[in-house]
Amino acid sequence: MIIMDIISQPIDSPQGLEILAKEIGGYFIKVVIDIEKEILSAGAKMHIDEEAQLLSMGSSQSNLWGGGYDLETKEITHDSIINNKPGVNNSSEILGTEIRVKVV
């Protein structure tokens, strides 16, 4: 069973983060962020599933950016194939500083 959720408020408990990380081995959470609506989808094995969830809720593709959070190192990543947007971001890594700040 995939545990995927839409999040609009900070998660204050380590247990909440651990639940979202279970799908990928318990230490890493994949996320897709809608930088306009300031919500994210988290907990799926693949960014594309989270992207599809946000698109079905009316998010615009141009506002969706993927990354992740490592529970062990507390590091935020900015890497996902959905970030490759020709003419905007020609890499799976988020290159634009303004977008990276919004994702964090």
Question: In summary, what is this structure?
Answer:
The chain has helices spanning 14-21, 47-56, 97-103; strands at residues 5-7, 28-34, 39-42, 64-70, 75-77.
Strand order of the largest sheet: 1-3-2-4-5
Biggest β-sheet: count, sense, barrel? 5 strands, antiparallel
What value does the average pLDDT take?
Answer: 86
Number of helices: 3
Please tell me what the overall shape is.
globular
Tally of strands: 5
In sequence order, what are the helices and strands, one letter per element?
EHEEHEEH
* Uncertain segments: none
Count of folded domains:
1
- What percent of residues are in strands? 15-25%
Q: Distance between the terminal alpha carbons, to the nearest Å?
A: 28 Å
Q: Tell me roughly what share of residues is in helical segments.
A: 10-25%
Radius of gyration: 13 Å
Overall SS class: alpha+beta
